[in-house]
Specification:
single chain; alpha+beta; Uridine Diphospho-n-acetylenolpyruvylglucosamine Reductase, domain 2; Uridine Diphospho-n-acetylenolpyruvylglucosamine Reductase, domain 3; Alpha-Beta Plaits; 5 domains; five-stranded antiparallel sheet; about 35% helix; about 20% strand; binds flavin-adenine dinucleotide
């Protein structure tokens, strides 16, 4: 390894490479407490050319490479699988390359965060539409495109961030560099359209979870932020999961252009209030029931009023639904979510609901009409696994929580369903309890398998989810073998994100 280290050091200089134990361990995890893989080397390139040179060396030496943006993947996607390889940290590549104001296209380096790009765009009265994921303060645009991320605001209106993609620059696993869409014509001056000049090759890298190439440059459509917005919050006093699904569905069937629409289940409202997470509801909600909120945007006051009226009719027509006051202090979380960038704080707060709790998530896309049934089944799963869960409760004195987080309306008649098993980490009260890790991993896999069998669509396919899909035979055989042969063609030495999808066989 020392020869390889020296070759890599020559590319980036000694300040941007490390094999120290401290740094390697710092890059050995993502946000879940369970999955760990310690890299041999961490490297932080500054441009596409350096990445191409790094990749060529890794490919010659058959060393795995794991691209990492913000490291916010919830399924162990941006850390090594097993103790091996090189973590390629993209965060030095965080510059805005160009804003094409005439054509409303921003071109950025892939390691830039959603927050940094939007801060820049706000000076021009623009925004990215879909504001990326809820982790957008730290998560990178390259990570978002690699995940089909959606959620941190604007996702009911604009859908997943990949919808806005115009063009990509990608370093292939053999070191070659390609550009997609309009840039596949070398006479094109700057990116303007994704489709054309042949197949949609950008699409190949959307949601690829870093297995087909390293995204180095991303061009996205950007949008003028409309001057008017309205945001309202409601309490759903009965059957909130079912009622929220009806509201989402009515919104789509009536064709109302809503910017955000979100349902937060009773349990989260209740526990969140106990933990001081939702100060706006502590006094305003006598009974801690499910919450529904929406945000709409418009170019005129009349347009805003007309849309708001239509939405209110849908929501208030449902039995025992109440509207909260218009200010944040009245309980209007929708206002905080839009006006105070709550969309980038909300999930970070939820993650730390109890300091010792660690979420083992099952975040996925599913049709609106399917999630009430999935939530009921998750409750059943919890009851069926009570004996296992009890093993953790016996140590911690508190029971892990199973259920859903926020549910958001996204593209078409789909929602992003945040659900899962929120457990305790194995370090509890200063002691290490191996049994907690064992039970956590068993329960997490079991829940992911259960939710998969509802036919949902996963978009973060890191270590655990990409492997479970293969292990339980969820991929149709022909689909999996097609994906595998594409991988072999693009990446003959299986260097990129080795271990995902069991392409090299099950270990
Ligand atoms: C608090 C919190 C809130 C979240 N909220 C949401 C949400 O609302 N919606 C949502 O969709 N997700 C959400 N997530 C999940 C995650 O943050 C997002 O999917 C995010 O887009 C990941 O970006 P990242 O830069 O952190 O990617 P990373 O975790 O660093 O990487 C993600 C994947 O992409 C690959 N990758 C990263 N950069 C590149 C690149 N340049 N080229 C090729 N491959 C690359 C990695 O190898 C990995 O497989 C949340 C996570 C947290 C912790």
């Amino acid at each position: 390894m020392s020869d390889i280290y020296q070759k890599l050091e020559k590319i980036v200089s000694k300040n941007y490479i490390s094999n120290s134990e401290y740094i390697r361990h710092a890059y050995s995890r993502n946000v879940d407490p369970l999955l760990q893989g310690v890299p041999d080397i961490v490297i932080r390139p500054q441009d596409t050319q350096e990445i191409s040179e790094i990749i060529r060396i890794a490919s010659e030496e058959k060393i795995p490479i794991y691209p990492r943006g913000g490291g916010d993947c919830e399924f162990g996607g941006s850390k090594p699988i097993g103790n091996q390889g090189i973590v390629l940290d993209m965060k030095r590549m965080n510059n805005i390359i160009n804003l094409d104001e005439d054509n409303l296209i921003a071109t950025v380096e892939a390691g830039i965060s959603w927050a940094k790009l939007n801060e820049f765009l706000s000076d021009y009265g623009l925004y990215t539409g879909c504001m990326g994921p809820g982790s957008g303060m730290t998560a990178s645009i390259g990570g978002g495109i690699s995940h089909h991320s959606v959620g941190g605001g604007g996702c009911a209106k604009y859908g997943a961030c990949t919808n806005q993609l115009v063009s990509l620059e990608v370093v292939l696993p053999t070191g070659e560099i390609i550009e997609t869409g309009s840039q596949a014509n070398k006479f094109s001056k700057s990116p303007f359209n994704r489709f054309g000049n042949g197949p949609d090759l950008a699409g190949l890298f959307c949601g690829d979870n870093g297995i087909f190439g390293i995204k180095t440059k991303v061009s996205l459509q950007v949008f003028p932020r409309p001057p008017y917005a309205e945001y309202k919050t409601f309490v759903l006093n009965r059957k909130s999961a079912q009622v929220s699904a009806e509201i989402f569905s009515d919104i789509r069937h009536k064709g109302i252009d809503v910017y955000d629409a979100m349902y937060i289940m009773d349990l989260v409202v209740n526990i969140g209030c106990q933990q001081g997470l939702f100060p706006m509801w502590e006094d305003n909600l006598k009974r801690k029931k499910g919450i529904f909120f929406y945000t709409i945007e418009a170019n005129t006051e009349e347009e805003l009023e007309a849309k708001s009226k239509q939405l209110d009719e849908i929501i208030l027509n449902k039995k025992r639904t109440e509207e909260l006051g218009s200010e944040i202090s009245d309980g209007n979380i929708a206002k905080w979510h839009y006006e105070e960038q709550g969309h980038w704080q909300f999930y970070h707060n939820l993650w730390g609901m109890f300091p010792a709790l660690e979420p083992l998530t099952a975040e996925c896309f599913t049709p609106i009409n399917s999630y009430p049934e999935i939530l009921t089944d998750i409750d059943m799963w919890d009851v069926e696994h009570n004996d296992e869960i009890q093993k953790i409760t016996n140590i911690t004195g508190q029971r892990p929580i199973t259920g859903s987080g926020p549910i958001l309306l996204i593209d078409g008649c789909n929602v992003e369903l945040t659900c899962g098993f929120t457990s305790f980490s194995s370090y509890h009260n200063g002691e290490y309890h191996e049994i907690i890790d064992e039970v956590n991993i068993k329960l997490w896999k079991s829940l992911l398998e259960r939710v998969t069998k509802h036919g949902v669509q996963w978009y973060m396919m890191g270590e655990i989810m990409s492997q479970i899909m293969v292990e339980i035979g969820a991929y149709p055989e022909d689909f999996y073998s097609f994906m595998k042969s594409m991988k072999k063609t693009l990446d003959p030495n299986l260097i990129l994100s080795r271990g995902k999808y069991h392409f090299g066989g099950k270990k």
